[in-house]
Amino acid sequence: MDVFGYIRVSTKTQMDGYGLKTQESAIIDFCQKNGYDLIEVFRDEGISGTIANRDGLNDLISSFGEVKKVVVLNTSRLWRSDTVKVLVHREFQKHSADVISIEQPNYSGIYTKNPNDFLVNGMMELLDQYERMSIAMKLNKGRRTKIKMGDKACGNAPLGYKWNDKAKIIVDEETAAIIELIFKKYLELRSLGKLKKYLDNSGVRSSRGNRFSKQALVGILKNDFYKGVLRHSDLIIEGNHKPLINKVVFGKVQALINRNRKAGVRNEK
């Protein structure tokens, strides 16, 4: 079986006889006696086990793949507090990894249920949830601030536009002509079905190379982003982006859509 080794010392553990060489020698000897293939030994020097963010430990976790067992002289090398213990457990469990402790032959691994672990793990999950909510609130606040300044905050650029390298929405000249054509031809043909047929026969396709569905065409025709409006949640403001359709044309299209809807689907065939 392939395994990793992990060793750690702080000033105190060096005095207690848990030096790096002592730990590494014990791990090598243990692996030889038990037929384990020791792939690599990760180490942290001069850092407490009450600290979770350790370079050697991080390298170990990121190396999990086919190798999923870690040999340590004592589990105190991996953690020195319940909080760090839970954090290490959670990271190991993400990779289905486990621990073998030389000095603790009765240690049954990180998957054994423990009341203390359950309590701390619950607290950590609550903290994680709080952090996710806090990040979401900050992101939403940033988006709303950007929207209020007249800029699209995030998401895919509508057909006819694209994001530039400064995270600004600009006109995509290649596809902007398609949007202008869709609005123009809808007013000329006065039917969604005839518009779709015209686009199909003319070889006009979406950004993915597909034919436009009627639903997609309605979405384009009713999208007031094309006349310069920005929407985000309850915010509706004039955007800084260049409109592709003037407000008069956009208004005529909305009126035609409403008339056709009231008249029934016959006018849309």
From TrEMBL:
GO molecular function: DNA binding; DNA strand exchange activity
Keywords attached to this entry: DNA integration, DNA recombination, DNA-binding
Coiled coil: none
InterPro entries: DNA_bind_recomb_sf, DNA_bind_recombinase_dom, Recombinase_CS, Resolv_N, Resolvase-like_N_sf, SSR_resolvase
Residues annotated as domain Resolvase/invertase-type recombinase catalytic: 2-150
SUPFAM superfamilies xref list: Resolvase-like (SSF53041)
Taxonomy, superkingdom: Bacteria
Catalytic residues identified in the record: S10
Biological process according to GO: DNA integration
Domain Recombinase: 158-263
UniProt name for this protein: Recombinase family protein
Species name: Priestia veravalensis
